[in-house]
Amino acid sequence: MTTDEMRMSRSRRRPVAGREQILSAARAIGVRHGWRAVTIRSVAHELGYASPLLYEHFRDKEDLLTQIAVEAIAMLENRLTENLPKDGNAAVLIMVERYWTFMLEHTQLYRLMNGMDGAPIDKDAVSRSAQNLCQVIGDTVQPLAGEGATAADGQTLADELWALLHGMAALHLDRFVPFELERVTNAALRLIGGARLVPKI
Amino acid sequence: MTTDEMRMSRSRRRPVAGREQILSAARAIGVRHGWRAVTIRSVAHELGYASPLLYEHFRDKEDLLTQIAVEAIAMLENRLTENLPKDGNAAVLIMVERYWTFMLEHTQLYRLMNGMDGAPIDKDAVSRSAQNLCQVIGDTVQPLAGEGATAADGQTLADELWALLHGMAALHLDRFVPFELERVTNAALRLIGGARLVPKI
DNA sequence: AGATATAATCTATCGTCGATAGAATTGCAA
DNA sequence: TTGCAATTCTATCGACGATAGATTATATCT
After folding, report:
1. Chain A: nearest CA to B57, how far in angstroms?
2. Which of B108, B89, B125 has the alpha carbon at shortest distance from B35?
3. How far apart are the first and last CA of chain A?
4. Looking at the partner chain, which of B115, B175, B198 has a beta carbon nearest the beta carbon of A174?
């Protein structure tokens, strides 16, 4: 074999395995077949590599899945905040709707980032991202906390709104208690509106 | 034939000894070290048996864990309903407090029955038990739904209350957003009280 | 170009898991 | 006792996560 031939074959060699490819493959498998189906071997096989390759880019399986979860949270945060109107009332309504839609459209990602599957994830890392997300909700909800409300009050209300949204999502996904979007926004308004003890809408 | 019948009936009168032991051992390991630590082998070892014995009493690991989850739900249901006062307002407050206390005192069982761990469980079976539990909440909440409220209205409100409680519990356990009991009852009352303030669309 | 160092990837393997087959054991009945 | 059936075991399978060490490919330097 001549040198040129060797160079040709080498240059046609598949590209170097990258962290991003691995993440994409794992995410694709998880979204399609659930996170149980995401094994070191299945991801490597999807990419045409041997399994140990993944350990060049990720400490272990938990590291890989945690990265996917953190990116999903960032994605949700972007969805929630982009082009959000200034008006507090409208903003909250839109945010609730966007949260619910994200959950429906990215069910598996939602389950992963909320630890609703068996997938091993670093709860501390995910929690940091999630708290950051919650602060965004807090900023939006803040104006509705009342007249002399502090930032802490806004955050308090945001925590509870977040809890309600996640609770309804969890029941919707796990328990076959189907909630319509309208019921979700309705309940959210009731929870928030009750804070001022003033009827809303 | 007579022999077979006798043996059948005798074995039915004394069904396979050990099912209860297995459940207890598995539950004990799960409560102490998390459901990840509950393996067919660890349970069998705790009992001093060989692993395959467990398959005489349970179809598979999921069957075993599902049974524990269903019993946990029944336990919660008993806690919620025993000696509940007739007065609707007081009953709801007590129920919320009992729910929260159960979650704090039986964290691992709560996580298992809500699928918050990797533990493989039969979601359909658990869901049936959970819906039954939710109906109990519905009966209690019913009087608070309003003047001309139907049973469906009570159930609707119960679903949302349930969602709020579980959402706050999930955030409390997973996300390091600590909620005090007072905040939980407070939010619950706001959600329910708002039902009479916000007109339904 | 050839030699060499570094990076990239592979093969082989370990220990653990859930699960099953089939053998060994026990206990009761005729 | 003999024999059947319930009970429990040993041995094993395939899949998993993970690691060690060999192997190959690329870059660098003469």
Report:
1. 24
2. B108
3. 79
4. B115
Rounded to whole angstroms, the Cα distance separating B104 from A189 reads 28
* Closest Cβ opposite residue B190 in set A127, A191, A201: A191
Give the C-alpha separation, A63 to B187, whole Å: 36
- State the burial class of residue B119 (Cβ atoms within 10 Å of its Cβ: 0-12, 13-18, 19+): buried
Residues of B in contact with A115 (CB under 8 A): 116, 174
Tokens found for residue B119:
């533990």
φ and ψ at B118, to 5 degrees? -75, -5
Q: Which residues, 6+ apart, have CB-to-CB distance to A160 below 8 Å?
A: A191, B164, B168, B183, B187
The Cα–Cα gap between A93 and B159 comes to: 20
Residue B147: DSSP 8-state: T
Tokens of A77: 């945060």
pLDDT tens track, chain B, 201 positions: 333 333 333 232 224 458 999 999 999 999 999 999 999 999 999 999 999 999 999 999 999 999 999 999 999 999 999 998 887 778 899 999 999 999 999 999 999 999 999 899 999 999 999 999 998 888 888 887 776 777 777 888 999 999 999 999 999 999 778 999 999 999 999 998 755 444 333
